[in-house]
Design brief:
Helices cover 82% and strands 0% of the residues. The protein is mainly alpha-helical.
């Protein structure tokens, strides 16, 4: 089972790197949002610094929606999903491997880029690493919430159009506690650890629930 799990993980990582439209496109979109918003807000650096964490989190959320519809749809179209269903590997572990590959190619690069992009939203130096840490532990929740929705729309021809509508409401708690933890790092009224630990718990719950929900949806669509 371990070899099958790693095979799916390596396959998805290889496909993401070959396609050139996964993590790279998400990173470019993230950069575009973070660059454009300061121009829209004007030269008020104090305002920009206060809402900087929200800009980074919103940019990360929107960027991770790019290509999410292809998480299972491509496998559905070429017949790979039927082989995955028929393999000895439990479908839940296959979904876990695909969700992990999505996070490694999308969420992880966004979190690593956050300290650099924080300069564009006037984040103070001492807040950059904590803000990046919130993205590091929070983006897995976005990947696996998206995986559950992507499994529901895998068999639809225009599934990518309704996928953001399904995913966005479910990500609101992650967005709230991610921004709260990032604001706490800027010197808010609550300790940084409180929303940060809740964010970690949300990610762990999303990994479990998203994996089970996606596997059930894929079985139902078989």
């Amino acid at each position: 089972m371990t070899s099958a799990f790693l095979a799916i993980l390596k396959r998805d990582l290889a496909l993401a790197s070959r396609a050139g439209g996964g993590g790279e496109l998400a990173l470019v979109f993230f950069l575009t949002i973070v660059v454009l918003v300061p121009f829209a807000l004007g030269p008020d650096l104090n305002l920009l610094s206060r809402i900087g964490p929200a800009i980074l989190w919103l940019g990360a959320l929107l960027s991770m929606l790019i290509g999410l519809d292809r998480l299972f749809q491509g496998d559905e179209e070429d017949g790979s999903l039927d082989l995955i269903r028929a393999s000895v590997l439990p479908l839940e572990l296959a979904v876990l491997a695909k969700g992990l590959a999505h996070w490694l190619t999308t969420g992880l690069p966004l979190a690593l880029a956050a300290p650099l992009l924080g300069l564009l939203v006037a984040l103070p130096g001492e807040a950059m690493l904590p803000v990046a840490a919130t993205l590091l532990v929070g983006t897995p929740a976005l990947s696996f919430i998206g995986a559950g929705a992507a499994a529901l729309t895998a068999g639809l021809r225009r599934g990518g159009l309704i996928l953001p509508v399904l995913v966005a409401p479910l990500t609101v708690p992650v967005l709230i506690f991610g921004v709260s933890a990032a604001n706490a790092a800027l010197g808010g009224t609550i300790p940084f650890a409180t929303p940060f630990l809740i964010l970690c718990a949300l990610s762990l719950a999303a990994i479990v629930v998203g994996t089970l929900a996606a596997a059930a949806a894929l079985r139902h669509s078989a």
